[in-house]
Write a structure and sequence with these properties.
The chain is mostly helical. Helix content is about 65%, strand content about 0%. It has seven helices and no strands. The longest helix has about 35 residues.
């Protein structure tokens, strides 16, 4: 089962919000560096997650799935946080506005996007894996990770092959391009004069 490639209102909104955030970027070296660290951690977490994921084949409880049931979504959140930190600052009105807009995006992520995703995802997993999903949920938090991993008895190991099969490599390029766009936005963005 593959995800739909058709554009949906939700996907279009994500692209518009992302382009708006990047276009309004007013980066400073310090916050850009901190944001870049978050983005790198996000991608590494996603690689770790997809190196364990055999989607719809096995109930995954190893690697990051022993710490959180949703490591890929946690990685996406860290990427959003990283891009937001890199794009704004407290020195200028524009930079402050970018961070305010970022808080709005984080609110949307947790209040609208994640609850819908969780409902849809858990319903699907429940049909495929049944009580294994409940057992995992009893021992591993939904989103924020626990430090101590749950030992489910599964000894599956990380696989670079799975990272490729799960199509995670392009995400690194997307994140790198987003960070490049954030850093260079003051020189190209059509919105650069918005606050002047």
């Amino acid at each position: 089962m593959t995800a739909s490639k058709k554009p949906t209102l939700r996907k279009i909104a994500v692209y518009i919000f992302g382009l708006t955030l990047v276009s309004l970027a007013d980066p400073r070296p310090e916050t850009f560096l901190i944001g870049s660290v978050f983005v790198l951690l996000a991608w590494l977490l996603r690689i770790w997650a997809f190196g364990h994921l055999e989607k719809n084949q096995l109930m995954v409880t190893t690697g990051p799935y022993a710490h959180t049931r949703n490591p890929a979504y946690l990685g996406s959140f860290l990427a959003l946080l990283g891009v937001a930190l890199a794009a704004g600052n407290l020195e200028t009105q524009q930079g402050s506005w970018v961070w305010g807009f970022s808080l709005f995006l984080i609110f949307v992520f947790f209040v609208f996007y994640m609850p819908r995703k969780f409902r849809k995802e858990y319903g699907r997993l429940q049909k495929i894996f049944g009580e294994q999903v409940d057992r995992h949920a009893e021992n591993v938090p939904d989103f924020w990770p626990q430090l101590r991993p749950w030992r489910s008895g599964d000894d599956r190991r990380f696989s670079w092959k799975l990272v490729g099969e799960n199509h995670e490599w392009p995400w690194g390029l997307v994140l790198a391009l987003a960070m490049f766009a954030v850093w260079t936005a003051p020189s190209w963005s059509p919105l650069r004069d918005f606050f002047e």
